[in-house]
Amino acid sequence: MSNSPLLPRPTIAATRPLAAQVGGHAGIETSEDDSLLIKPALPREIEFYQRIAAAGDHEELLKLRNWTPKFLGVLKLEGQLKDLNAVGDGNMEIVPVHGNIVPEDKERLVLENVAYGFVKPCILDVKLGTVLYDQDAPPEKQARMIKVAHNTTSGETGVRFTGFQVYGNDSSEPILTPKSYGRSIKKEQLPDVIEMFFPVSSAPYPTPPNSTETSDSNVSKPQSGLPAILLHCVLTTLQADLEELKATIANIEMRMVGGSILIVYEGDWERAWKTLSMPSGTATSEEEEEDDDDEVEVEIDENGQIVLESIPDEAIEEEEEHQALLCSLSLIDFAHTRLIDGAGPDEGVLKGIQTMIDLLRQRKDKIAAMLPTCDV
What we know:
One of its GO terms (cellular component) is nucleus. One of its GO terms (biological process) is phosphatidylinositol phosphate biosynthetic process. Its EC number is 2.7.-.-. Keywords: Kinase, Transferase. Helix content is 31%, strand content 20%. It is of the alpha+beta class. The protein folds into 2 domains: 1-113 and 283-321, no CATH class; 118-281 and 324-370, 2-Layer Sandwich (D-amino Acid Aminotransferase, Chain A, domain 1), CATH 3.30.470. Mean pLDDT is 77; it is low at 1-13, 79-104, 208-222, 280-296 and 310-322. It has helices at 43-54, 61-64, 139-151, 154-157, 179-184, 190-197, 216-219, 228-249, 269-274, 285-292, 313-321, 347-368, and strands at residues 11-12, 15-17, 29-31, 36-40, 71-76, 80-81, 94-95, 107-112, 121-128, 159-166, 175-177, 254-257, 260-266, 297-300, 306-309, 327-332, 336-339. The protein has 12 helices and 17 strands. Strand 14 and strand 15 (306-309) form a beta hairpin. The chain is globular, with a radius of gyration of 22 Å. Helix 8 packs antiparallel against helix 12 (347-368). The strands form 5 sheets. The chain has a 5-stranded antiparallel β-sheet with strand order 2-3-4-8-5, covered by helices on one side. A 5-stranded antiparallel β-sheet has the order 11-10-9-13-16.
């Protein structure tokens, strides 16, 4: 446990809908500064995050902590006091905290926003697995989801693209591709989607920050796509991350239905260049264990505001250091994930991860062919 002095209690006076949501269910909100996600969650997903957080040093589940958004706590939004100073019949009136209608008993996860700190986050949500129904789903739903898997890329490849957004270097708004597109494509079109999400600029190397060199090519930048050298670094990092994630999941006995890989990379040229030498955003086990020593408490105060307590100052400093990332890869959405002793790993999920590894390798090889060669 850290002995650092505690900062004053920061209060998130308001939340807002997640602007960069490309997949999943509606209702996810962010803190006012976008650093946290507040997500309605079913008991099983809450339990899964708690199991990961409580995993011991010798449990394989501990390694999964490196690939999931940092879990800060659980809160329950029931309401707020309308007027604490009003004098009446002794009965206090409760009004909703938010305008959105949320079931009173719905608990919410408080998680780090893995897209926080990116200037222009290009985001892809990839649904994993060949089985799309939970084991306790009614027969009608099982039959329906079997048909969905058969009619989409899920059944054959273990992946389905549920939506993505891509920024151009000179654009303040992303280009959005809805999940309906991912449902409509066939296996043969998956490389096309990867090319759409990882476009490459026709311009040469970007100008390094603070460089005194100028040229026409550095002034006129294409509307989308990183330069080849930056994109190659992104793809190399993500491919390595996927291979490590696959090795981790191969040793965990679980069944994950509806889980996703969330890929984020920096679409801003200058920011990407500055972060080129930084890690992909996946902390090592040792770093992650040190993170977990800094506990953060989450509660709702009497005014219905979300309050974070016990934030050590080095946690704030570490967050600032990790805000500038080239790319990141996370495993998300565990509402229908079960840990089952003796069941072995989820082969459908492993198949999906291997599909992504192959797709990124193909794209990386194409980009590598575009890189200038050096004469020796």
